[in-house]
Structures are given as structure tokens and as C-alpha cells.
Amino acid sequence: MTDIATTPAVARTARSEAMRRALFRFRQSKLSIVGAVMVFLVLFFTAFGGLLAPYPEHVAGGVDTANRFLAPSVGHPFGTNELGQDVLSLVMAGTTVSVAAGFAVVLIGTLIGTTVGAIAGFNGGWIDEVLMRLSDLMLTIPGLILAMAVAAALGPGFVNMILAISLSWWPGYARLVRGEVISAREEVYVSAARAIGASPARVLFRHILPNIVSPVIVKMSLDMGFAILTVAALGFIGIGVRPPTPEWGTLLSISRSYMPDFWWTAIFPGLAMFLAVFGFNLLGDGLRDVLDPRARR
Amino acid sequence: MTSPLLEIRNLHLSMTSFEGSAHVLAGIDLTVNRREIWGLVGETGCGKSLTGLSVSRLVPSPPAQYLDGAICLDGTDVLALSDREMQALRGKRIGMIFQDPTTNLNPAFRIGTQLIDVALAAAVRDPAVLDLGPKAGRGERHRAARALAIRMLEEVGIPNAAARVDDYPHQFSGGMRQRVLIAMALIGRPNLLIADEPTTALDVSVQAQILKLLKQMVVDHDMGVVLITHNLGVVAQTCSHVAVMYAGTIVESGPVRAVLDRPTHPYTKALLDAIPARNVQRGALRGLPGSVPNLITPPPGCRFAQRCPLAQPSCTQKPPHKVAVEAGHMVACPVATQALENANA
Amino acid sequence: MLEIQGVTRVFPARRGMFGQGAEVRALTDVTLSIREGESFGLVGESGSGKTTLTRQILRLDTPTSGIIRFEGKDMATLSPAALRALRAQIQIVFQDPYASLNPRMSVHDIVTEPMLIHRDLLGLNRRQRTDRATELLDLVGLGPQHLYRYPHEFSGGQRQRICIARALAPGPRLILLDEPTSALDVSVQAQVLNLLIDLQKRLNLTYFFISHDLGVIRYICDRVALIYRGEIVEKGDTRSVFDAPQSDYARELLAAMPEVRVPD
Predict the structure, then answer these.
(1) What's the pTM value of the predicted model, to 2 decimals?
(2) A203-241, pLDDT tens digit by residue?
(3) For B82-135, what is each residue's pLDDT tens digit?
(4) Chain A interface residues facing chain C, Cβ-Cβ under 8 Å?
(5) Largest alpha-carbon pair distance within chain B?
(6) Contact residues, chain B, for C154 at CB < 8 Å
(7) Span B2-19, pLDDT tens digits
(8) Which residues does B245 contact at the CB level (< 8 Å), separation at least 6?
(9) Out of C91, C100, C149, closest to residue A188 by CB
């Protein structure tokens, strides 16, 4: 009944038309715009946080014991910590580590998960059975415990931490991609491709995978927040990034002993984390409305 | 003289999307009396479904906005009613049947349960539906509703209804499900039935049975029907009257044989020429070149003018007036009606 | 040209959660032969086995028993390479023009894909493929300006034209038309039917036309077969089947057919 309303406008090119539609739908939700702005800020600090920090020497590990535990002021808007370091500088620089780690986790998880899910969904049969039971097995192990085990085996550190979290991250993507591949496999255009003689690889890479990109991107955006949280959680319990490299979880972990008197040392890293996670979630919801309108509500 | 069952007067409706506001219904006039089956035909996007949905106010608003006009049901303008009053009117006065019989029944509940729910809800508004006094107890009402459900299933031709009332929807075939939906639509004894493509998803032989049933129900229940369809064959088989729609306007309407045997509007003629009827030689069918105008910036005059073989410069000036070419047979094309007059003179 | 001999397809019983289901006989002893250059119609209602039969012909599925020969060669005995070559000869147009085009591919990519897949057979380089795609679009009544657009920008009728162009791309001789106009409005249907008739004359194509719409079949087909519950119940020249149906099923179908004009 809305056919009239969707009559294609003639003169515009496909891509700009699609972009305009997407933007229109995205703008329908104020919250997605807020999310996009927050994510933009987070990404900005990821790129330039270390450079813009007012006290770069503190970021590098320098201390200033004369100015310990200064309350927020004009010189130190977020105050200083137990070593006299500027909390604002640490939080800004910490963005890089947290977001980069979160992004790496999501990316590796997506790569492994998509590969496994696509193979399982496309082939079906015993291959599907084996791969999906494997991913179920991975899902039964709590991510944090697995990460602690990996840290115990390989030692703590940035790369090990990312690997450890990624290991528990991919099954979600495998399940999503498998389901999407199975339903896309039944599409008429896939039958059409098979009827013109397309090889299985061509069917998978040209006809199925491009059509399931949207839900994967949405999940990646929603997951970014959780990945950042998980990275911070590992930092908090002390098996992630080690000081002096600033990282939100580690900052929180150290400053918790100085609560509530020197509250600024904990509040500001916590707030940064909150904003980043919230921003990615809002953006993810907005993207879902744009890319995958069926899944709404 | 009582007021007609349904009278749509000069209905204008716009729909807003991100491309702008489209004028999707532009001055619809339609009068349906009891025992009349009106076929509302037209191609995709002509606004036939929107017209049907407007009668029971099921068009979501926004994005829809009624700009002008009235929809009177026994003299009451439904567009002026509150949501609560409208809710009471639906089901009791207006029955609706939709295209896909598979998605309009809840697969998790028995057919009987779904019919009984509808019957009980209808009885809240009008106790006469169950034929019980106002003081009847719960159990009594339920028994009466169940009996009514079985009676309705029998009426729509479900064999062994007393046993099948406890079946689930998946145990019924497509045609049987559509019969169940007709039973459900009729359970509240509506005066008006709106059937939106009720047989499009069905096979030809089943379609014929359902249409026959529909005709029988009109007589039995003294109803009026608006049958929305894209299939002129279905109209010819079933309807007493027909209104042909194009791009949000009714271009020709009247008694079914008058319109189909003596089509006057060029669009009606084009539609009929496009049907592969008997004795049409291969290659002799005529399609309609061009496409429907953009309704965001509709042409100021006749909306069919761009594709019309008879178009004159004057056609693009102002919307055409409807003229009666014979009793009840209205045509919105001054060029065609003038030509007809000249030929008769 | 295409011979279908005693084809039966039985789908084995599925063992479900609640015990064993019954096996499904989708096709029973179907025998048809389609001559070069004709339009052969297959009429049946939903679930009658029409689609299962097309899947056998395209070899997307294998019959339980029976033989399908294309130009005298048994399709079951072909080598994979020969089967691939055969795929270029037999093409299909599906019912739903909205679902049968990959939404992420441009018209150019859609129409050139069969040429890319069968490039060893057709020997066209990239430039030639694009040229041929433009020719094909012209043949089905679309213009070069449509080449780099995406499916969602087209109406149902235009999409079906794209599907036809794609089917013509590898230079087929037989085209299966699986309800190609059922999803279209009548005025568009008339255009597409006329296009098909025109293409058949120009390119010497053979059509296997599947539909539940008797009017369309009567308009376009030379011969027709009626399928009911997986069995062919009647076949013959279109005229004689429509004028003097032999089987009860054919009579029932014809009686139910909604005609616009009352027979005089």
C-alpha cells in the first residue's frame, strides 16, 4: 500500500540515493545522532588523545609527587592522582589503548566467527555440526575466566589480552553468520545464480556474503562497547595492560583504594568508559535501524 | 430514504515519506448499499487498499493525513469518531478479510479459540450476537460463543465443523483458512465487509469457491461488500458494481456489466485490452506504455493524461469532472464522454 | 529438444521430533517432450509439482527415477564440464522479480555474470561483455542509462526485463519461465508477454512456460500439459485442450477460470 510513496526518483544515482535514505532513517532517532557524536569524540581521542594531552610527560610515566591528589581545578580539570599525574591526560591517552584493544578484539572475533559461520552455514551436514558444537563449547567457558587462563599461560600483556578475549568472542559471530547464511542460501537470487552455473565459491562470496554484511556491522558496533568493558575489566583485575601505559581499567583499579576521598581519580576514567560504551551502543541501535530495519523492536 | 450503508465523499489522503508528501487519494467518491458487491480494481499503488483501510481507519496516521472528505457509515462520519468509538465499530459494523490466510490466524491457538474470542468480544458490544440475555453467566456465554463458532464454520462450508473447531490453523488448507477468516469477519454480524485481495493467494478452483461463498454471504447477511482486487476477472465473476482506480482517483464506476461491456474511460479500456482473454491472437495484447505519475508532484489535471491516447491540451489543466454516461455509470474523462455523446447524436 | 521420460521424484520421509513423517511423492511418472522453437505450457496449482519439475530440468535436484534428455543426451550421465556447458543452454526466469535479483549487484554485474561464468564458452572479454549487456538491455526494452543502477530502483516489470536479459546472456536455446508474470500488474504483464513473444521470434528460442493463469497460457503457448498432484492429467494442443478438455480436472479448472467477458 505504500508503493506510491516508494516510487524511485529517477535522476539520482543509486549510491547517493541509498545514502540519503539511510541518513533519513538514521536522523529519525535523536539518540543515534547522540551516539554517533559520542563515538566520533571517542575515535578522535583514540587518534589524538596522547598528542593533545596537556601533560604528555605524565602519559609517558613521569611523576610529580609534589602535586599529589590535587582536586579538579583550572590547571588540572580532572585533578591529579597518587603520583601527581594529571588525570585528564591519562584519561585522554587511555582512550587509545582501550578503544584499540576493543576494536582489535571485535575485528579478530568477526574474522574468525564469520569464517566459521559461513563455512558451517554454507556446507551444512557434519561440517556444520562439528563447527557449531565447537563454538557452543567455546560459549560455555566464561570469557573472563578464559582470558585469565590465557594470561596465566602466556603471561599478561596487551597482545595476549586481545588474543584471549577474541577467543571467547567469535562464537557469537559464528552463530549470527551461520543463521544469516542459511536463510540467504534459500533466496531466489541464489537459486538463480546456481541455475546460471555459478560455482559454490562464487555463490558464497558474490551472492551470499555481501547480503549479510549489515547485521554483522551492527553487531560489531554493539559489541565494541562490551569489548571495551572487557578490556577494562581485565585491566582492573591486573592481567591486562600494565602501568605505566594508561588504560581506563587499570586507572580505575589503582584509584579504587583512594575512594571516596579522592573521588576524581576514579570518577573520570569511569565516566570516559561509560560514555564510550554508551555511545557505541546507541550507534549500534541506530545502525540497525538503517541497515536492518526488519530487526527493529 | 435512509442513508446508504457506506458513503465515501471527496476523500483526500496524503502520505508523508522522506521524499515528501504524496497525494495518494485525490477525491474518492464511492457509495455502497446493502446487497451490493463493489469491486475496487486498479494496479499496484493506485490506492485501492488505502481506500479500503480508510473505512475502518486502519491507515496509520502519521504518516497518513486526511486532508478532506468524509467516510459515512450509516450516516456517521468515521473520520470524526474517537479511537474508542472506532474500536467499537470495527468488527461489529465492519468486517475485514485480508490477502494472506496464513498470517492472519495465530498458529498457536485452536481455530475455535480464536473464533470464540472474537465472538465474546463482539458480544460485549452487542449481546444479541450470542442470543443471550444480559445476565448470562461466563460459562453460558462461552458455550453460546462456541456454538456460534461452529455454526459460522458450517455456514462458510467447513465440513464436519463440530470436530474441526478444535483443530489448529496448520491443519487447514489455504482455502479452508480463508473460509475460517470469512467466518471470523462475519461473526459480529457486520453490515459492511471489506475484502482486500481475499483470493489472490489461492488457487483458481479454490478462488471460485470462495467468491461464490462471498456472494452467498451477502444475501444471507444483508451486507454490503467492498472487494479490493487487481483481477478484473474476479470482478466480472463476483461483483455487482465496479470502481476502476488510477493513481488515487476513481476514473470510472458503475454497474459491473455496464463498465466491463461498455468501458468508456481510456484507462479502463487499456486495462481490458491488457487481459489475455479468449480469442486474443498471440502478440495482439496491448500493454500500457509509460508509468504511474509521481504523486508527490502529481500532474495538475487528469492523472492519466501522460499515458492517455486521447489526451488533449485541456486535460492537463484541471482534474476531470465525472459525467454519467448511463444510469449509475460515471466516467471521469470529458474527452471520452464528449466523443460518446457525439456518436449518439 | 527436451525429453522428460517417466520422471518420478520422491522426497524421503523426514524423521521429525514426533515420529516419522510420510514420504512425499512430488512427481509421478512425468513424461513430456518439448519441440524446438515452440512454447510449451505447464499448468498446475500450488503444490502440484511444477517447481520440482523445473528443478529436475535445471539439475538443481536429481529425479528418483526417470530420464531427462536435452538434445538426445541424458543429463544424468554428463560430466561436470559438459553439465556446465549445458547450463548455458537452459536458462530460467523466476516468478518474483523482487527476490530473484541480488540487491547488492548492479544491473551490469547481474547481466554480465552469466557471461563471466561461461567465458570459456562465449570467449568474451570484459569490454565485450559490457557491450553485450548493453545490447541485451536494449533487446528487453531498457536503455544504457540503466546499466549501473541497482535492482531496488526499478519497478516490477523492469526487474522482470532485467531477469530476462540475464537469462538471455549466455545465449540459451531453452528458457524455463516459472510464472514470469504472476507478480506483475496486467498492463505490465501484457508488455512482458509481448516481449517474450518478440524475443522468441527473433532469437529462435524454445519456451517452457509454467503458470497457474490459464489466460496467459492460452495466449502464449502452442501446446500445454496439466499437472495435478505430481501427475500429468492432460496434454495436447492449446486450442484443443481449451475447447474440448478431456479430463475432469481440466474441465473443473476451465470452469473456475475468471473471464472478464461473459461468453456470448
Answers:
(1) 0.81
(2) 999 999 988 888 898 889 888 888 888 888 887 877 777
(3) 888 888 777 678 888 887 766 778 888 888 888 888 888 877 777 777 777 667
(4) 8, 13-14, 17-18, 187-189, 191-199, 202, 206-207, 210-211
(5) 71
(6) none
(7) 678 899 999 999 988 777
(8) B40, B41, B42, B46, B47, B48, B51, B251
(9) C100
